[in-house]
Amino acid sequence: MSGELMVQDHPLDGLLRADRLPHIWCPGCGLGSIMSCLTSAITESGTDLNQHAIVSGIGCTGRVAGYLKLDSFHTTHGRAIPFAIGLKLAKPELVVTVFSGDGDLFSIGGNHFLHAARRNIDINVICVNNFNYGMTGGQCGPTTPTGARTTTTPFGNSEPAFNLPHLAASLGAVYVARWTSLHVRQVHHSMLNAIRKPGFTFIEVISPCPVGFGKSNEIGEGLDEMRMYRTNSVVDPDADLANAGIDMQRDSPIVLGDFVDIERPVFAPSGVDRG
Amino acid sequence: MVTAEAEPRVLTGQHFMNGDIAFAEGALAAGCTFFAGYPITPSTEVAERLSRRLPKLGGVYVQMEDELASIAAVLGGSWSGAKAMTATSGPGFTLMMENFGLGVMTETPCVIIDVQRGGPSTGLPTLVSQADVMQAKWGSHGDYEPIAFAPASPQEMFDLAISAFNAAERFRMPVFVMADELVGHMTERVTIPSEDRVSIVNRKRVPAGSEDRLFYAADEDLVPPMPIAGEGHAFHVTGLTHDERGYPAGDPLVHDRLVRRLTHKVQIHEKELTQVEELMTEDAEVVVVAYGAMSRSARQAVMVARERGIKAGMFRPITLWPFPFRKLRGLANQVNRFVVAEMNLGQIAREVERHLRRPATWVTHAGGKMIPPEEVLLALQETAR
Ligand SMILES: Cc1ncc(C[n+]2csc(CCOP(=O)(O)OP(=O)(O)O)c2C)c(N)n1
Ligand code: SF4
Ligand SMILES: [Mg+2]
Q1: What is the CA angle B99-B103-B105, rounded to 5?
Q2: Residue B9: inside a domain, yes or no?
Q3: Is B281 found in the same domain as B193?
Q4: Percent of chain A, pLDDT > 90?
């Protein structure tokens, strides 16, 4: 054996709070790998780690803030975006990323999303969409597909679901992407783009929640859902977003891609020229 | 784009201004650099003033989509190091209760002024009341010990804006100013001191480069130094019950210790925090307790009562929370008879009776108008008898 020791630090160790692991997420949950995409994107971006702030709302996804060794804020249900706006406006040099769930960002926090996108505030929003309220035990939410069974839709969900990239694009988000937790390279790449892009960026990451959604909807375990992502995914950056909703039916496509990348004036808090 | 003209942060001099504007100027004098809010009568003039002033001073003014967002942005701004505030009235105050609690739990300095109008609900949008004072005490869920001031004039709107920011910074928590429509909208002389005469308190900060990771370990004054975003601390902040590292902890012991510290840090500084005005109480036989705009009517009633030979006085809590009960009890050693006059149906009256352990005479009105001095006078006469 050569004298060289082959022990190396895991490249992402520096960005995780080792003293908080293991995390609380269930086996088969997609959250861990999506969080790793963010740490790798932040690392690769070459940006100063001290300038990153992560803001989460409440939910399983909302716990991400607590695992990242960055300035991190676990706020209240739905309020991650306005909290992030305060951080960013008071200290524009910060790179502020909101990482939260579908219920948090689009039900209780929906109004904040609308206005932050409209204003084109320079923050990144990452939504992990698992089609339900995972943390509270699998209730129906604003992205639950029509017909889906959840603990509060025992007869099937009678409501239509949000189509998030379509929504974000219609509001003027300057960067919009959707991937699944299977597409780690693409998620990483989109996150990297978002970090580098000035203005309001939005990434939806479809993710298995076997406990709250997969099992009750004949999808099965986390791995089964990942298989479904592989077979049903259609990568189409030019997709007509109006028709890119997701119903999670066995034979329905899951349309993915980097859909939007445009320029728009970034929000500045006042019209005063301080020069 | 407008070009920034040289404009002083502290408008030293004599002015005639309304209470809302005086508050905005007081906030600037205290070092406020960040405002997020949502328009609501009768607080809007605070926002309007700051929308003109802050940008010229290099600060941030932002109008948010609602009050839920406004207070959330204020908390975020504070973690970026800004002295941050918002201004609202009853309906917005209700919406802010959610993240007021986050501010208490995460120990985030900021100032919230509630220019009170008649409630419940939309109530009397343009007319005075004092009916949110108990909401300030109990409106957010869980145990907490608030700090709240009650200005009685435009001058006090200016002065207490500074007290509020100083208390927020000193104790690391959201601080309320419970103003009312009358004080907000009345125009009076306001004296603004020179900048060097304004005493300013800044939060204790975790020094940049510090290796200490116990971000929620408090000093002897029960207040932990605060890290600021972007300075390399990689700190965590959560509204969940947390340990001294700031990490979530579901342990009842940790919870009890934390919540007790958060309340004790205010309680042990009660003396430092409580401001009161006592008017002719030295030889008083009957004392009216009144605060905010209502104290102006009570003051007149006391004057007339004195002319009529009644030994009346006034006890005016300037700090409403923590309630200045020690000072009130001190007064009760010498005075037996108390009247409480307020523009609600008896919120502080209950507090007064609780501390005195005896009934007081209530002079109340649900709001919409100032209770006239004659009514207070009548109560003083009857109670003195
Ligand atoms: C004001 C408020 N209402 C309700 C809750 C309870 N609650 C906690 S998490 C959650 C849903 C989270 O769903 P989502 O954002 O999709 O996150 P997930 O757990 O699925 O990752 C709810 C309703 C709360 N914490 N606060
Ligand atoms: S409940 Fe669902 S979202 Fe939450 S940790 Fe478990 S699998 Fe993940
Ligand atoms: Mg969810």
Answers
A1: 110
A2: yes
A3: no
A4: 92
Q: What is the pLDDT of residue B5?
A: 59
Smallest CA separation from ligand 2 atom 1, residue:
A134
Taking 90 as the threshold, does the pLDDT of residue A269 lie above it? no
Report the mean per-residue pLDDT for chain A: 94
Mark yes or no for CB contact A269/B248 under 8 Å: no
What would the mean pLDDT of A254-266 be, rounded to a whole number? Answer: 98
For residue B155, the enclosing domain spans 4-197
Q: Pairing state of beta strands B187-192 and B13-18? A: antiparallel
Average pLDDT over residues A55-82: 98
Question: The tokens 């700190």 sit on which residue?
Answer: B235
Q: Of B197, B227, B260, which residue sits at a domain end?
A: B197
Facing residues of B34 across strands? B60, B84
Domain boundary among B197, B212, B227: B197
Query: Topology of domain A27-261, per CATH?
Result: Rossmann fold (3.40.50)
Q: Are residues B16 and B164 in the same domain?
A: yes
Residue B385 near residue B369 (C-beta atoms within 8 A): no
Domain membership of residue B268 (yes or no) is no
Cα separation, A145 vs A140, whole angstroms:
9
Q: What are the distances in angstroms from CA B108 to CA B83, B132, B198?
A: 10, 22, 23
Contact B261/B218 with Cβ under 8 angstroms? yes
* B2–A273 CB contact, under 8 Å: yes
Is the residue at B262 inside a domain?
A: no
d(CA B342, CA B295): 8
Total domains, chain B:
2
- Asked if residue A130 has its Cβ within 6 Å of ligand 1, the reply is yes
Kindly list the domain boundaries of chain A, sorted by start residue.
Answer: 27-261
Residues B264, B222 contacting (CB under 8 angstroms): yes
A134 CA to centre of ligand 2 in angstroms = 5
- B81 in any annotated domain: yes
Best mutation site among A76, A133, A181, A206 for ligand 1, i.e. most ligand atoms within 8 A of its Cβ?
A133
Which B residues, 96 through 135, put their C-beta within 8 Å of a C-beta on chain A?
98-99, 101-102
The pLDDT assigned to B6 comes to 74
